[in-house]
Amino acid sequence: MAEDGLLDQMQALRDRVTGITGAAVASRDGLIIKADVEEVSPDNLAALAAAWLGVAQRMASEAGQGVLREAVTRSSGGYVAIYAVGRTAVLLLTGDEGLDVGRLHRESRTTVNNIEALLASAGPRPGIFRPAS
Amino acid sequence: MAFFDPAGEAAPDPVLAESLTKSAAGGLTGVLQVIGDPGGAIYLSGGGVIGVRTPGAPSLEVIVLRSGRVPDDGWEAAFAAAAAGTPMTAELITRGLIGAGELEALLRAAVADALFVLASGYVDQCRAEPGPVSNLLPLDPPAEVGWLLAEAGRRMNVLAAIPGLTSYQRARVEPAPDVVTAGTVLGGGRDELLALANGRRTPRDLAFALGRGVYATTLELGRMQHEGLLVTTSHRAGPPLPAPPRASTAPAAPAPASPASASQNSAGQASASQNSASPGGDHPADDGLPRRRRGRHSEADAGADMSMLLRLLRPRSSSD
Lengths: 133, 320
What we know:
heterodimer, A: alpha+beta, Beta-Lactamase, five-stranded antiparallel sheet, globular, B: four-stranded antiparallel sheet, two-stranded antiparallel sheet, 12 helices
C-alpha cells in the first residue's frame, strides 16, 4: 500500500535529520493521509496544514516571489514546516528547538519528490484527491 | 566518530580532536565548522572555546526555558534589550532572571555537553573559518580545548562502561512493559524521563524535551535501561555510506569499515556505526595522522549553508 511507503519516507527523514519530532501527509482539502506524530492531533494538523499552504502560496504570489518552497513557524518550543507535494497534498514536519535546519533543507526536497511519486502511483481516491482547481 | 583505540577505550573523534587542538594551538579566533552527524560549529576566541552550536545538544536558551528556570517572557525581554546593544548576559542578570554565577556555570556545562555530543558523534571533516565572532552568550572566560576533549573522552568511557548498551545515543527508548505502577515515584529525574520516553525519542530528544544535558540524560537513561526500566524500540540510522577516497587528496586512506557496514540497519546492527570498533578502522596517511575523507558530495557546502541558514532562521542561537 502506498501508505506504508509514506510512513517509510517520513521515518527515514526523521532518521536523517536531527530534531524532527513528527511528520504528516495531508490532502489539500485538509484530510490526513498518513501521520507519524507524537502527542498532537493529526486531524487538526492536517486541516491547518492545508489552509496554511494555501495562504503561504498566495503570499508568495502576492509578494512576487515565485514558487513557494517551504513555510515555517518558529516558536519558543520548536518548528513546524510545510511543503507542497505536487498539487494535491502537503507534507508537514514538526521539530524541536534543535532542528537541523540546514540538513532539513537538503533532505526535504528528495522526500517531497518521493512522496509525490508514491501518491501518484496510488492513483486517485474518490473524495480525497480531486483534480487541482 | 566515536572511536576505540586498541586499548579498548572510547575517545573523542580523532578528526575533531586534531582540528580543534590545532585551532587552539594556533590561537584561532573564528568558527570551526564541524561537518558530520550531528555536526555543528565551535566558536573560538584566542584559541579558547566561547560557544558550541549543534542540533545534537540543547543550547543554554533551551535548557533554561524548558526546565522552567527562566520564564519565556523574561528571556524575550532580555533578548530584545540585548538587541539594542547591551550584552544578553548582563540583561539576564540585571533583570534578576538568573544569578551571574549560575549563568556562567550553566553556560559552561552547555558548552561541555555540546562538545561531548560532537566528539562522540560522526565527524566527516572540520573547517576553520578565522574571523571575528559575536555570540549572544559567550562563555567568559573561554573553555580550554584540552579540558573539553578530555572531559568528552571521560564521559564517553563512563557511558561505554554500562554493560549491554551499544550506540545508546541513537537508541529510541520507551518504558519496559511492566515497569511503573501508578503512584510510584522514582525520583532523581527518572519520573519525567519515563513519562516522556515514548519509543520515538532518543536520549538527545529527551534532553531537549526536558531542558537537560544530553550526557546526563543519556547516562541516566542508560542506567535505567540496565536496570530494566526501559527498552529500546529501534535505533536512529547511522550516517550514510562513506564515498570512496578522492584521488586528489593525500595518500588515499581507505574509509573505515565500521560506520558503513552497520549504518543502514537499525537495532542490533547499529552498534558498529557508533562505536567504530574495528581496530583497523582508520588507516594513517604518510604523516602518521588519521585521515578520513568520506566525501559526501554536498558536504563541502554543508557547513556554510547550515550556518547561514541557522543565522537567518535562528539569529539568537548563534552561540551557546
